[in-house]
Amino acid sequence: MSKLQRKPQNAKIAEGVTLVQDINEANSGLEYVGFKMIDLTQGAIYEESLSGLECCAVALAGKISVTAGAKTFENIGTRASVFEQIPTDSVYIGTGESFTIKGETGISRVALCYAKSDKPLDVALIKAEDNSIEDRGKYQNKRHVHNILPDDSNLAESLLVVEVYTEGGNFSSYPPHKHDVDNLPNESFLEESYYHEINPGQGFLFQRVYTDDRSLDETMAVENRDVVLVPKGYHPVGVPDGYTSYYLNVMAGPTKIWKFHNDPDHEWILERE
Question: I want to staple 203 with a disulfide (CB 3.0 to 4.6 A). Which of 148, 215, 238, 243 is the partner?
């Protein structure tokens, strides 16, 4: 198993609360990015207090109610499965806040996306209709994108969050690109995590993470609900025929801007007619 790939741990941490993934500075080597995946049964409650971190709670599947600070957002979430391919609701929670999340349906999946932060910002509901939607690529390089917290959002200090769908037979995060050098305006330094779901659930996909000098070069067979860490390097995803890939990206770094550099060996594919 690659040191960059994390299998679901599925640890019961409270009544009706399952911790599927827990990526933090202590166990990942990432300085700026953290991630948790929580499954909640109906009526179950997850609680957390933030210190030195900001968080975006994404109602991945099912409905939830979120209380943070003095604000409560009830029954948010728009889909029973990510593979409905419609945007969903999220809540931004600034550092210093405490929050609770309550499951409102049979099983609710909640992604908790974290970045380092020392700037308290207002709690905010990010409605599904606030997501910008775009399609990228052509030929076998097509993907469908929901931007939850893009780099031009003023809701967060450092945090970037995006959902990406890739159909079978296509590549994504392709041509291979990286954002691991603080060299603005040409490239920004952003760590990244990928939370993967696959439909049907028995499927797999491939993700490679590599640097120019190949001091890091890992190729992984990724299964449903795995997480892949990208501390640096290029990080393309390939999806086998017959399966649909969903992934949720969390990015953060010293500057909240997404400026990437394509692998020059493969950039030529963008010039095809």
Answer: 243
